[in-house]
Amino acid sequence: MFDFFFKRSKPAAVAASSKRSSQAVSQAVAKATAPDAGALRQRALAQADALGTDEAALAGFIATCGIAEARFRAAQNIHGRAALGAVQKAMRETDRRVARLMQQRLETLDREAASQQRAQQTLEHAQALCAETALRSNQVVELERAWKAIEAPAGEAQAAYDAVHARLAQRLAAQTALQRRVLDAIARLRAVVADPATHGAAIDALAADADTTLVTVPQDAELPSLPKQLLPELARLRKQVQHLQDAAAVASAAIAAREQALQAWEAALANDHPPENRPQLASMQRDWRGLPAVADVAQRESLQERFDNLVRQVVPAPPRKSTEPVDAAQLSEGQSADAPVAVASRHPSADLDQRRAQLGIALAALQAALDEGALQRAMEQDRLVRTLDVDSLRLPAGQQAALSAARAELGRLQGWARWGGTVSREELLAAVEALPQQALTVTELAKKVGSMRERWRALDASAGVAPRALWTRFDAACTNAYAPVAAHFAVLAQERAANATKAQALLDEIGVFALEAGMTSAEADMDAGAPEQEAGTAPDWRAIAAFCQRMRQAWQKLGTIERKEHKRLDAAFAQALQPLLAPLAMQQTQAIAQRERLIEEVSALPPQARETPERLQALQARWQQHAKSFPLDRQMEQTLWQRFRSACDGVFAERKSAGVAADAERNANLQTRTALCAAIEQLANQETASERERAATLRETRGAWDAAGPVPRAAQATLQTRFDKAIHALEAQAAARQRAVAHQRYVALASRLRLCLAAERHLMHVVDAAPGSAWAEQWAQLPALDAELEQPLRIRFDAAIAAITADDKTYATLLETNQPVRDTELLRLEVDYGIASPAAFVRERLALQVAGLQSALRSGASGPSQASARLQLARICSLPAMADEQAQRRLETLTEALLTSV
Fold first, then answer.
1. Is residue 380 packed enough to be buried (19+ CB in 10 Å), middle (13-18) or exposed (0-12)?
2. In sequence order, what DSSP letters do the residues of 718-772 get, joined into one string?
């Protein structure tokens, strides 16, 4: 009842009954006769090995075996799902190592099953793809990716997949070959259409190949995979090539007809036929004009040249009269006979000799031009000669004859030129009349008609003016051919007028919006000077910016307008938008500055601060608010947003890198602490480790655990519980071993104390005992005891044996004398350690308790220490005193309490 005042608690062993004292020796004997732990371990391991692969027997053995190593060895031979599940459930709380092994194998089986299921599904999908009519390459790529994602598919599944994949690859190759075949045919036909002259005779072969492709491709099994536009495109190009072939056939026929006519005429002129049988010029010209026209310019010119030669043979040129040579001295400096001669205008006072000299020069130039066949230059020189008033010059007969011959030759050349011009005009007329039947674009048609008119005008200059009827037909044909171009230009003119009307409507809309927004030119100047406005009168800048952007886009989408009108409208548009753009530009400058400040604030945020995410989120919200209230130009907005986003990403990246480093550190700490837990658990399972090794390992593990940093929050509680449980188990094992050692010490001390009391009883002739020579043998057979406790008992035992041997009655008297002293010491120790005393000592016990309480209150001393308890136990055990059964039980109870509490 006074334990509270002495600040100590009763040991757990004190509450045990006195029967434990009498059973101590029997327990020691039972433990001594127990089987060896090492033998049990070897027997269990041999039994685990003997079970082999019988999973039912192995599961039963694991459930009943008490050796952890044997259980683990038996568990390694279990692979079936049912046995794994049963053992894992049974060992979940008993043997975590076995349970963890079973769980790992169950997870492996689950993964294998899932892998097989995915492999089967993928294989079925591959087989379905083989049956599809239109196979796409991306489907095969996705299938291959899905198969590679499967972990270690079975051999049969892999072989089946390889076969299906080979079929898919063959189909893709066939599709690719089919598409390539059609594309190559299209490319070849396009090349032919673009430049027919380059291919020549190969056109027929290419056309035949295209016909074959058009016939065989629709019958191909992979036709559904072919793009739908390829075959129509090939057919269209084939038609164009057919048109080219037809045109080439027509051209060949025209050339052949003209070649045949020329050959007939040449043969007739080559033979010596009478004049009446020779070809006539009129009939030749009529037949030549009736032949089909030749489109090829080079061929046409070559045939025309041959015909002209035949005409010259039919109508020979008159012989030219000789002319006097031109005196080189008469040519002015810097001029040649080929160049036109500039003659001074006549003047009444001009010198006659100078005019004659000029006439000589002009006549020489005229003769040179005629010799070269330069009709245009000859006509110019003839006009110069006529300006010199030849009749008044009284030319010599030779010079007059030369001039007449030159003019006769000029007339002959002009006649031929007129005839040739007529033929060329007729061909030009035929070409113009054929233009409407040609599939030409408007631009090409306009160029063609323009070039035809230019050639007609050139013929007017070189071959003279055409007949009125021929000109009328040509002009009508050009007008007819030009009709689509004129209609097109009329439509364009209407479109330009409509676009001008739309532009004016946009200008009116801008003016109305500016008036409604109160953004006139004067107000715009005021807004530019004072951008800060009251909240109630501030313009809707977002609407203004959107309107300006919409107007600019609409203006850009306007079609073509007349050039002069376009310049006027552009100036008006810029002037109309100016009242809106000037204050808007000021607001845009302010908005850009605000966004720049937001970017600077984001860049200045400390990445590792705790409040950084919240501040960054607030800045992002402010950015969104600014963007909604006043949007900038798309490019500027995108540029600023990219900078802001890069700054935000930089902050997040630094935080993420720090977080990754922290996570890596936590994971490393997790591995370290997991290894420490495993080490403690392994130490708890090791039965051969010494107490010193266990204490050192436990101390080092605790230090390493405290030194390790934090772990992931999700694993912290579980890991701490595991570590505490392992430490508790290790400490419980140590406490159990300490209790076992203390109990062995108690048994050894109690047996020696009983032997001493027996010897003393023999001395007092209280009970019969063995003879004196047998006492030493009994002492030697007792269990070992610490020297600190054995030495006092040995002295007491030797003294009793000596007294027995000498039959010393004085020692017997000492035993009776020390009996009260022993009872007093026993009672004091029972009070100190809270052990119950016999009822006969109640009063003495109460007196000792009161005295002890008063002494404790005066001195403030606490209860007895461990060292003093061992000394008191040694002293009372070494005190020789006669003890009855009650005293012996009290001694044994006190001994057990003191030894098991230390």
1. middle
2. HHHHHHHHHHHHHHHHHHHHHHHHHHHHHHHHHHHHHHHHHHHHHHTTSS----T
In a domain, residue 55? The reply is no
Q: Is residue 673 part of a domain?
A: no
CA of 565: how far to CAs of 510, 560, 561, 571, 773, in Å? Answer: 19, 10, 7, 10, 149
284 near 309, Cβ under 8 Å? no
Q: How far apart are CA 427 and CA 301, in angstroms?
A: 12
- In whole angstroms, give the CA distance from residue 814 to residue 793: 16
Q: What is the number of alpha carbons within 13 Å of residue 862 lying toward its C-beta?
A: 6
Confidence class of residue 11 from pLDDT cuts 50, 70 and 90?
very low
415 assigned to some structural domain = yes
Q: 434 lies in which domain range?
A: 328-466
**CA–CA dist 671, 488 (Å, integer):** 83
> What are 202-222's pLDDT values in tens digits?
777 888 888 888 888 888 877
φ, ψ at 784 (rounded to 5°): -65, 155
Which token pair is 244? 């080219």
Q: What is the DSSP letter of 392?
A: G
Q: What is the Cα–Cα distance from 517 to 545, expressed in whole angstroms?
A: 12
Spell out a b/e string for 849-876, using b for 16 or more CB atoms within 10 Å of the CB, else e.
beebeeebeeeeeebbeeeebbebbbeb
Region for 389 from its dihedrals, namely left if φ exceeds 0, alpha if ψ lies in -120 to 50, beta otherwise: left
Is residue 184's pLDDT more than 70? yes
Residue that has been written with the tokens 């023999």 in this structure: 762
Q: In sequence order, what are the residues at sequence separation of 6 or more whose Cβ sits closer than 8 angstroms to the Cβ of residue 214?
A: 231, 234, 235, 238
Answer whether residue 843 is part of any domain: yes
Show which of 414, 431, 466 is a domain's final residue. Answer: 466
Alpha-helical regions (H) of 387-467: 397-434, 442-463
Q: How far is CA 895 from CA 14, 300, 741, 744, in A?
A: 10, 144, 14, 12
Give the pLDDT confidence of 393-417 residue by residue, as tens digits.
677 777 777 778 877 777 776 666 6
**pLDDT-based confidence at residue 274 (cuts at 50, 70, 90):** low
CA distance 854 to 859: 9
Contact call for residues 644 and 598 (beta carbons, < 8 A): yes
Number of compact structural domains in the chain: 2
Per-residue DSSP letter, 636: H
Distance CA 832, CA 842 (A): 15
Q: Do the beta carbons of residue 134 and residue 120 sit within 8 Å?
A: no
Task: Look at residues 466, 493, 525 and tell me which one is the last residue of a structural domain.
Answer: 466
CA within 13 Å, CB half, 617: 5
> Which tens digits make up the pLDDT trace of 108-152?
888 888 888 888 888 888 888 787 777 777 777 788 788 877 776
Residue by residue, what is the 3-state secondary structure of 263-295? HHHHHHHHCCCCHHHCCCHHHHHHHHHHCCCCC
Can you give the pLDDT at residue 342?
39
Burial of 561 (0-12, 13-18, 19+ CB in 10 A): buried
What whole-number distance in Å separates Cα of residue 801 and Cα of residue 791?
15
Q: Cα–Cα distance between 421 and 458 in angstroms, integer?
A: 10
Tokens at 775, concatenated: 């006492």
220 vs 18: which has the higher pLDDT: 220
Q: Which residue has the higher pLDDT, 360 or 186?
A: 186
Task: Report the b/e string of 651-660 with b at 16+ CB within 10 A.
Answer: beeebeeeee
Distance spanning both ends of the chain, measured CA to CA = 22
pTM for the predicted model, two decimal places: 0.33
Q: Taking 70 as the threshold, does the pLDDT of residue 351 lie above it?
A: no
